Amino acid sequence: MDQPWFCPHCGRPLEARRVADNATGRVGFRAECPHPGHYRTVVCATRAAVERRLERDFGAPDA
């Protein structure tokens, strides 16, 4: 991800993770907190789509 994003629950940086669906063979990406049970996005086709999802959920980050 180009911008640093942080978990709204604990403040840790979100990680971009690659996700593979074993049933369909599709590969996608999601942003999630390293702490289990905290914030994570739905699976998106590209990292850019994950970034747009975060901007939609949290607003544009301050640069």
Features of this protein?
globular, single chain, 1 helix, alpha+beta, 63 residues
Main sheet: strand order: 1-2
Task: Note the total helix count.
Answer: 1
The helix fraction, in percent, is: 10-25%
Report how far the terminal alpha carbons are from each other: 14 Å
- Gross morphology is globular
How big a fraction of the residues is strand?
A: 15-25%
The number of distinct structural domains comes to 1
Main pleated-sheet profile: 2 strands, antiparallel
Radius of gyration: 12 Å
Order of helices and strands: EEH
Which structural category fits the helices and strands? alpha+beta
- Strand tally: 2
Low-confidence stretches: none
What is the overall pLDDT average? Answer: 89
Structure description:
The protein is an alpha+beta fold. The protein has one domain. It is 19% helix and 19% strand. The protein is built from one helix and two strands. Strands 1-2 form a two-stranded antiparallel sheet. A hairpin with a 6-residue loop joins strand 1 and strand 2. The longest helix is centred in the C-terminal third of the chain and has 12 residues, at 47-58. The protein is globular and about 35 Å long. The chain starts with 14 loop residues before the first strand and ends in a 5-residue tail after the last helix.
